[in-house]
Design a protein that fits this description.
The chain is α+β, with helices and mostly antiparallel strands. About 40% of the residues lie in helices and about 15% in strands. The chain has a 5-stranded mixed beta sheet with strand order 3-2-1-5-8. Helix 1 packs antiparallel against helix 2, helix 2 packs antiparallel against helix 3 and helix 6 crosses helix 8. The longest helix has about 35 residues. The relative contact order is 0.11.
């Protein structure tokens, strides 16, 4: 390698490293889907682990760059190539051995730190809120467990948890391999057909955190998102009490007509609405869908217009989704939208 080329490569490496660090610092340390903006104990430990690794490797990189430039700037005399140089070879041997020993020590230290930082991830606290999450193409079924069957219920694509209480997620899949990842709260965990995995975390900061399937699972993998809402215990208790209740019985004639259309025109064959004759198990439970923040597993904000568009043409919004187009008439579509939007 020529001296000119080596200097060019070194300068280019410095520029690329500087740009990468600047982009990383400005774009990756905040937001509702960032592992460096922790809102849970596991994410906090992962965050600390990352910064330790980052700091040590940055120092190592800087020392390598300094050594490289120092070597490039030196202009040693040209000795006889056949002459022995025992002192120089001894110094070189000491330098190489020291560098190898330092590298080994750093790797061992980082390995031990990583082990002790993550070894308690699988421990389930006795007072944990137990939730079963089942991956489907392409949405999330969420079942709140409990010793008393009267306290169990099912929802979809949105998980509510109280701040400060341990949460234990039981992860399963009904079709292909999915991966549950809410970066602000915990690391990734796969959902594998025929196997049960456990993910535990304790939320430490209130907020709404976006999750995503992190394992390619088919055509609509990119539109398989969910929200985790971390709220105060009293807010969670109020939300849970509402979720345990059956769907409200409509009193408005137009809404009642929407309920009849929902039951008669095939929707009830796939969806459950507790308190009604709709008991389908193929699609998400819609008992309180009007309170959720998104439609179609995070694809659209939950507004009346988006809800109506989703009912009218789900394949146009999420091609390949299991929900078929029913070709409802205009009045029937309006009535069903009014009914579903009112399920709060």
């Amino acid at each position: 390698m020529s001296l000119k080329y080596a200097r060019f490569a070194g300068a280019t490496g410095v520029r690329i490293g500087t740009v990468a660090v600047a982009a990383f610092v400005t774009q990756s340390c905040s937001g509702l889907q960032s592992p460096l903006n922790p809102g849970g104990d596991l994410a906090d430990r992962i965050d600390h682990l990352f910064w330790i690794f980052f700091a040590i490797t940055a120092v190592v990189w800087l020392l390598v760059i300094i050594a490289m430039f120092s070597g490039l700037r030196r202009k040693p005399p040209r000795p006889d190539p056949l002459a022995l140089q025992p002192d120089a070879e001894r110094r070189m041997g000491v330098t190489v051995a020291s560098a190898a020993g330092t590298t080994a020590a750093i790797l061992i230290a980082l390995t031990l730190y990583s082990f002790f930082a993550t070894r308690g991830f699988g421990v389930i606290p006795g007072n944990a809120l137990r939730i079963s999450v089942i991956g489907n193409q392409w949405w999330w079924e969420v079942q709140y467990q409990g010793a008393n069957p009267a306290g169990q219920f099912t929802t979809a694509n949105e998980i509510h948890v109280p701040i400060g209480r341990p949460v234990s997620l039981t992860l399963n899949s009904r079709d292909v391999i999915h991966s549950f990842w809410v970066p602000n709260l915990a690391g990734k965990m796969d959902l594998i057909p025929g196997r049960t995995n456990i993910l535990n975390f304790t939320p430490t900061r209130a907020g709404i955190y976006r999750g995503q399937c992190a394992e390619y699972c088919g055509l609509q993998h990119a539109h398989m998102a969910l929200l985790v809402v971390v709220e105060q215990p009293n807010e969670f208790d109020a939300w849970r009490a509402n979720e345990l209740a059956d769907a409200p019985t409509p009193s408005d004639p137009e809404v009642s007509r929407g309920m009849a259309v929902f039951t008669a025109d095939g929707c009830a064959g796939c969806h459950t609405i507790r308190g009604t004759g709709a008991g389908g198990m193929l699609g998400p439970d819609l008992t309180h869908v009007g309170r959720r923040r998104t439609v179609a597993a995070g694809t659209l904000p939950n507004s009346r217009g988006n809800l109506q568009a989703w009912i009218a043409d789900p394949q146009g919004i999420k091609p390949g989704a299991k929900m078929p187009r029913l070709d409802l008439s205009g009045p029937d579509l309006q009535a069903v939208t009014n009914y579903i939007a009112g399920l709060k």
